[in-house]
Amino acid sequence: MKAAKTNIGDVRRDILRSLKLAIVEGATWRYDHLVALAERAGVTDEEIDGVAHDALHALLNGAELPLNARQLAQDWPVAHFRP
Questions:
Q1: Cα–Cα distance measured from residue 35 to residue 54, given in angstroms and rounded to the nearest whole number
Q2: pTM (predicted TM-score)
Q3: Is the pLDDT of residue 83 over 50?
């Protein structure tokens, strides 16, 4: 059997995507771990800063968009409720 080859670009992209999601979710307990993973994968400080900037920008742009009950239930399963 051949050993699975991991594309470094895919790993970096996945780590940065996870970091962006953690920032948007406010999962501060994951930041240190994800930044450490990113550094080990060869991600630069500028790339990490760029992802953080994009995440905060997306968060602030969506802050004033109203959510209906269906969207809330899809995004936050623990928030299921019956109006």
A1: 15
A2: 0.66
A3: no
